[in-house]
Amino acid sequence: MGVTKWIGGALGWAFGGPIGAIIGLALGSLVDGASKSDFPFLGQGDRKQDASRQSTRGTFRSAQQRPQTQPGDFEVSLLILASVVIKADGHQDQRELDFVRQQFVSMYGKDRANQAFSLFKNINKQQIPTRQVCLQIKQMMDHASRLQLLHFLFGIARADGMVTDTEVSQIYMIAGYLGISSRDYDSIKAMFYNSSDNAYKILEITKAATNDEVKAAYRKMAKKYHPDKVMHLGKEHQEGAEEKFRQVQLAYEQLQKERGF
């Protein structure tokens, strides 16, 4: 099986539409002489699943019809949106690039990360149609996976020691295109800042909330950010999910201490 054909099957829905165009161009200099084993970071599924996902390329689905996100689709979406955020402030900081590479290594191991970063560098040379890419992701990716993408993007923005207003605006725009609510956006954003009301923002409540409302908010957010929500993405992405979950727990523990309940 040729590498291009295999990649198309492994990616599923992400190999169609604007994402497919970006990946196709990025792969142009990589596929010559490559073999299937050269691209393990794109994820694999059994042939029946691949065939099913290929049949959905270029289609639009309701939330009820949306297929479960596959690792390859998530990883390619992550690579593209990471490129958008890194270039948001008009220059590419080496610390942000190093953060992306470090995250790939922690998720995939060194060899697989090197393959992913090679593709990322080719994506990074392109002009990304952000809105079209995000709308494709919104139509096809489950909500929990989109929240995981957003969490990763804030991590990139903070990698150089500060999150600029331009980066915040870019991530906010991406969140909107992805169909992520303002409350979910503020919750994840608060995980990367230090302020007196961060705990409330993470739990998606205000300081006027009663103790019972704080407890209810904690249960709701713990369920929303539970690592099991992204089990389908593979163990590689569990660490990021667990970090969101820990932040919810820490926010709740902080309010318990402050309020004395």
3D structure, described in words:
The protein is mostly helical. The chain has 2 domains: 3-180, no CATH class; 193-261, DnaJ domain (Helix Hairpins, Orthogonal Bundle), CATH 1.10.287. It contains 13 helices and no strands. The protein has helices at residues 3-11, 17-27, 47-54, 71-86, 94-108, 110-123, 130-140, 143-158, 165-177, 182-190, 198-202, 211-224, 238-259. Helix 5 (94-108) crosses helix 8 (143-158), helix 8 packs antiparallel against helix 9 and helix 8 (143-158) packs across helix 10. The protein is globular, with a radius of gyration of 19 Å. The N and C termini lie far apart (62 Å).
Short description:
This protein is mainly α and 261 residues long. The protein has 2 domains: 3-180, no CATH class; 193-261, DnaJ domain (Helix Hairpins, Orthogonal Bundle).
